[in-house]
Design goal:
By secondary structure, the protein is mainly beta. Helix content is about 5%, strand content about 45%.
Length: about 120
């Protein structure tokens, strides 16, 4: 039996190299009623650039505003590049907590793009 898929997954693709971006720290955060961000869970992208396992692994979404914060500096510096964007933050709304939320990130040292995946 395969493990249960987490409610949020991401796939980071480095467009400048044409590969998945391995080793990028990612935090999933929730916007609280006091308008402060609270970390829900964290992870690091795997060799394919995906996050399929979070620490802690057992978390549930509730309706509200979330963001994925990708820390990019170390990843690009390991390639001898200083990124223009050291942090990519993707903010999104969860209106149906039982649905799966997949958020790809396409990046280069000088820009990034995202969309709601499947």
């Amino acid at each position: 039996m395969s493990p249960k898929r987490p409610p949020v997954t991401t796939h980071v693709l480095d467009l400048s190299r044409g590969t998945g971006a391995e080793g990028i720290p990612v935090a999933l955060e929730h916007l609280e009623s006091n308008l402060e961000w609270r970390q829900v869970t964290r992870a690091e992208t795997d060799p394919d650039g995906r996050v399929m396992e979070w620490l802690p692994p057992d978390f549930a979404l509730e309706k509200g505003t979330y963001r994925l914060a990708f820390r990019l500096t170390t990843y690009f510096q390991s390639q001898g590049v200083i990124p223009f964007f050291p942090l990519a933050e993707v903010t999104f709304t969860v209106s149906e907590p039982e649905e799966h939320h997949h958020i790809p990130l396409l990046l280069s040292p000088y820009g990034y793009s995202t969309y709601r995946g499947t």
